[in-house]
Request: fold
Amino acid sequence: MADVTLRKVVKRYDDVEAVRGIDLDIADHEFVVLVGPSGCGKSTTLRMIAGLEDISDGDIMIGGDVVNDVPPKDRDIAMVFQNYALYPHMTVAENMSFGLRLKRYPKAEIKSRVDEAARMLDIVELVDRKPKQLSGGQRQRVAMGRAIVRNPKVFLFDEPLSNLDAKLRVQMRIEIKKVHQKVRTTTVYVTHDQVEAMTLADRVVVMNHGRIEQIGTPNELYHKPATRFVASFIGSPAMNFVPCRLEDVGGRLHLRLTDRLAFPVPPARAARYQAVPHADKLLLGIRPEHITEARPHLEPGIEPFDAVLDVTEPMGMETLVYFTLEGSQICGRVNPNAGAQDGAPLRLAVDLNNMHLLNEVTGVVL
Amino acid sequence: MSTVTIDKAGPTRKVKYGSISRDRTWALRWSYFFLVLFAIFSLTPPLYMLITSLKSSAEISAATNPWWVFHPTLSNYVELLTSSQFLRFFWNSAIISIVVVIVTMLISIPAAFALARMKFWGSATLATGVFLTYLIPDSLLFIPLFKMLAVVQDFTGITLLNRWYVLLFIYPTLTVPFCTWIMIGYFASIPKELDEAAIIDGASWLQTLTRIFIPVALPGLIAATIFAFTVSWAQFLYPLVFTTSIDQLVLPVGITTTLIKGDVFNWGQIMTGALLGAAPPLIIYAFLMDYYIAGLTAGATKG
Reply:
């Protein structure tokens, strides 16, 4: 086991920079998820750590050693691929032991390692089958088993659950987390699914356009996003953004959304936004769960307003309501008993204690 | 009223289903018609060969129904199979074909692997070049090849011309390009992640080839093997040009040179020889047919 360090890592394909100077420190035993939209460079980064892609610039270190020019087989890593990449002509046991057999491990040790991994992944009865006799979830388990038996320094996962159906994905997610809790191997995991990222990671690395937008624990990313991209990428339904500006009304900082709608900024937040020039074009960022039905007794910082709902989506434990404000579609989450109906007006309340204020031009969260 | 409408809808639907199955029936009838036609067309010559091979020379030249054997005899078979000359031709053909298949595979498999997977400068051009080589007909190549080998023979003092083993150098010019080409296609259909997984598991390029690619691409390999064998076995022009002494000849050339004396055609034995000569490829096809088809259709569906 080892830590992984990336220093100003760049990947260029001819004229295109796929990865633009990434710095990342992954601690020993840590589970780090790289997440971002397709083409953001997350898979390329993982493949560079694996050694399947050369790096154009910078350094990659595994366990303190620079591995820029070390071939994949000498990096002591194991990788799980999206399409499983099981050897179709070998049985499950042969698939799992292939790496060990190449390294000429003693037969007894190979057997004990394969047995242990098979037990851990609950595939003991499958070891004599060929991959084509397995279901997608079972194949993914075998692919993980192949990584586990090697007992490598680092696990690399390249969108391992994307080929599975939604239900199985949730199940395998838990499975992966359990495996990590048992083996504690440093893990780098790539996905485009922010839910997977949030649920699995010790720390999430959000990437966009070949750069790291933000690194943090799932909670940090959710509650303290650094940029508009992170704010909108993490969380489902996504954060709402409404154009706004700041103004002083009677010596108190107000947030003006429309000509008729302005909210006082809660004192705790006002101190932070005091220095923001009032002329700046700003965005109010507010998560759907902070727009709810207005209750008779409102706490400080929670401001009521009226909206005409465009669409409602009953989800059972809550109802998602959509309405339009200044041309932006806003989503809120209300109690299913609040009486929300398509096309009907509803009195809502926004919790400004959890607001975010963004610079509309730079996208930076203030 | 409503019942009437439903009653009406019933038969209309049935007719629709019926028309689909009728279309299918007709499609099947036409396919069988053409398949039978094609089978007759391609099976008549060998059948005629078989009939003729069972006749004596006298019966062949007699004015009787050529499609019927009145006095069946195995004398043609006995004569050929006891003739050391014919057995020599057979042996020459066999040894040449087998060695050529081995040589072809030893060159084609690594070549195809390199061209399909190790992206190096000019690999795509080289792959196309390999195929273009195959497109040049042997009737254009045999004179320059003869010249080349004559020069090599003069230069080294090793007798090459009029020796059966010279064909071991010539045949691969036919088999290697085509086999390499189909193997490239086959290897290319293997998902890239498979060799990446092998590389991460610690396999070298050679181990990836021998332990992953060859087993996975076995149907393609067998298709290439059959092709190489058939081409070497049936080759006529090159052995005709490069070998002349009776003991150096291969089967196709041997049969035509020794069984046709001037304008005397020993039809019974020619047909027998041709039938016996067709047997080995036929046997190989019969055993490996499933693999062969799987090999040729590879990449058509998800590999």
